[in-house]
Design brief:
The chain is mostly helical. It has six helices and no strands.
Amino acid sequence: MLAPCGIDCAECAAYKATMSVDEEQMRKVVETFGEGKGSFNDWACLGCLHPEPGLIANYCASCGIRGCALERGVTNCAACSSYDGCEKLKAFFAEEGGSIAARMTMLRGAFVSREQT
């Protein structure tokens, strides 16, 4: 499952801890992502495309990229007409970089080439 920004939810520690119901993993998620504050309830997550925000990690439910994608009616930013000039994505890629940016570049190229045919 791919988030609108290109994060692979299936590789996310919060998603994996939710799916496995592993208490040790849940504690690590709170320590790592929540800096030890709050509880796993804040990080329990079924992936950011889940339609019920109450079942998405609080941080992810309030993500500006996710909100924008929902507003624009796209499940992935690569399909958005504003992709190339999107400042939110540029800032996110600068922070996260690497494989996420490469994945999204590949997806954008595939989307554009299919739209042109």
